Amino acid sequence: MNKKLQVLVADLGKDTYNYPLSIVFIIFSIFLTTLIAFMTGGSNSSLHLLYIPLFFSVLVFGIKGGIITAVVAGLAVGPYLPINSANNIMQPPAMWLFRIGIFIVIVVFVGSLIELIKKTEELEKRKAYEDLRTGYYNFNKFKLDLWTMVSSCKYQDISVIMFEFQNIDMIKRYVDVETSQKSFVELLDKAEKYFEDGTIYAATSKKITVILPEWDAWEAAKSAKDFIATTKKPVYIDNFPISIVVKGAVINYPKHETDGDRLIVKLDKAIEQCLRCHSEVVIYDDIIEIEQEKYYSGLVSLYHSLQNDMFTLAYQPKIDLKNNSVIGVEALLRWKDKDKKSMSISELIRRAEEAGFINQITRWVIKNTAMQMKRWDEKGIIMPVSINLSAKELSDDTFVEYVRECLDEYGVNPNNLEFELTERIIILDEKNALEQFRKLKKMGIKMSLDDYGSGFNSAKYLMEYGEIFDYLKIEKKLIDKISNEKNFAIIKCMINATHLFGMKLVAEGVETISQVELLKSADCDYIQGFYYSKPLFAEDLEQFLQKQNL
């Protein structure tokens, strides 16, 4: 627990009583009860009034104070108070001593209950304002403090910084949860030391907020950048080096907003914009809201387009280098009326993944590909087609069954369908991805590892899961540099390794005759690119096949 939170908890546990006045009340209550008992004939039922000062003393002074009050009250109505005032018959010692004992037992019991209630209340108050995982203030306290500062009108400037621990989920996934948690606490500790004038909050499981009274936005942004620079050196958690990647956003009262709740909303929008534009630190600007409105209206348009069949498919031929024949095509999503759409397909796919529409788009592609394959089959054209998959499909338990239903509905031979997957998809959930691959493979569907050579684990997948993949695809970035002698040697080694594992290799993005000749000399199997053909709509592809004279 940080120092400021310790002070808060201590304050929450304090009861604000006027102790001198409380003592006067207790003494007066005992005196009044004794007087009433004496005037009504002696020690009788009126003595029950003593429970009022007893319980009150326990509440104010605790069990020790209650015991003292119990003894004083017991003596006050004990040896000097007769059983019968009229006949002056005094109480035997056993009676008033027993009464004192009863008072003490009651005080201890009630005092224990009150202490238990107070501890429970204190714990609930701590939970309300403390992030129990880190010991720092939580989002509730951040919101309360910001609202209080803004409402007080005491400050000319209040800047708020939000930092997001970008790679904490990756640490959680590939190291463990405990290490990710310790890394977050390490970041909080760094922030507390760095921003001595501010208050630090663990706003979420990966976001930190800092309130800086009397700081302007530019001053806060500069400090945020400097702080991020201090986090770039790896930290050691249990002797394990951990890299912390942090982004930040800044908002200022009253420059950007005068309402506390709206400040928080705009701060969230600023950090979203920071993550989207790949900046280290962003200062809120009204244009951020305008851009985000455009972004979300684009998502609405995307959903509308999906529901109203505004997409089509284009097919890019794959060429066999040995005989210059078309051995298949890759299905690519396109707008039906591209002139009316400002959003590129790559941007569309990215937004669809973010918004959760990618499954619907992929299923649309699979269904429409199956329909087209049926039409080609009816024309006597046997054309294998490959389709790109995203990670979302492989996490969907119903995906394999959907593919099976589509193939059955349109009578498509599974051997003519191919799914392309990148290494990134496998990394996200390797166990589940490979399980889905095997199910698809068992159906007879071909599998292709896309962008081969671009990741760190490509060789690993080649060795461990070579039996799953039928094709490997070298990405365009490598092909663009094939004229370099060393790069050519690397590509040739990749081709040889592919053949060694019984697979075929496809080179993507081939655009020049020199690239074609070099790939031929390296014994590449298939190529795909603008040198032979751009992506073609179905009718154009049929004409291309008829006129083909490569």
Descriptive overview:
This protein is an alpha/beta fold and 550 residues long. The chain has three domains: 3-128, no CATH class; 136-284, Alpha-Beta Plaits, CATH 3.30.70.270; 302-547, Alpha-Beta Barrel (TIM Barrel), CATH 3.20.20.450. It is built from 21 helices and 18 strands. It has helices spanning 3-13, 19-39, 51-76, 93-129, 139-152, 168-174, 177-194, 217-230, 260-277, 286-307, 345-355, 358-378, 391-394, 399-410, 423-428, 430-442, 458-464, 476-480, 485-500, 513-521, 538-547; strands at 130-131, 136-137, 158-165, 199-202, 207-213, 235-237, 240-242, 246-253, 281-283, 311-320, 325-335, 385-388, 417-422, 446-452, 471-474, 504-508, 526-528, 536-537. The chain has an eight-stranded mixed barrel with strand order 10-11-12-13-14-15-16-17, surrounded by four helices. It has a five-stranded mixed beta sheet with strand order 4-5-3-8-9, with helices on both faces. α2 (19-39) crosses α3 and α6 runs antiparallel to α7 (177-194). The radius of gyration is 38 Å and the shape is elongated. It starts with a helix and ends with a helix.
